[in-house]
Amino acid sequence: MLKVLTLNIAHGVPSIPIPLPFLLPRRRLLGHLDRMADLLARERAEVVALQEVDRAGLFSGAVDPLERLATRAGYPHLLHGPHLHLPGVCARGTALLSLRPLLEPEWNSFEADRAVDKGYVMAAVEELEWVSP
């Protein structure tokens, strides 16, 4: 059985109405991310789908939320689809974390249809071989 979990990390700032991580003290932002990583480590899903995920830049307060979650929760494989990418400023999107290698990774942004930072990521994971008891 494959366990899958989805989580909207709200740019690492789930506790305020408008998630602007660069306004938070670094310690508080890291605390939010660490609590999310604790949840992921506790649930130990093979694949985690994340929404509202940034990479390090001005918007994220120079913190890389995806790398922080992957490292602290023990996920060796990750895929980020940057649906709004302004180099050095922001790389917002969706992501996958996985305990197994992510094969055939792809992502797409809906920017052709909408002027917003929406899109998807997709990958395959190899099935584990079933061993009869």
TrEMBL record:
Residues 5-124 form the Endonuclease/exonuclease/phosphatase domain. SUPFAM superfamilies: DNase I-like. This is Endonuclease/exonuclease/phosphatase. GO terms for molecular function: endonuclease activity; exonuclease activity. Keywords: Endonuclease, Exonuclease, Hydrolase, Nuclease. InterPro entries: Endo/exonu/phosph_ase_sf, Endo/exonuclease/phosphatase. It comes from the Bacteria.
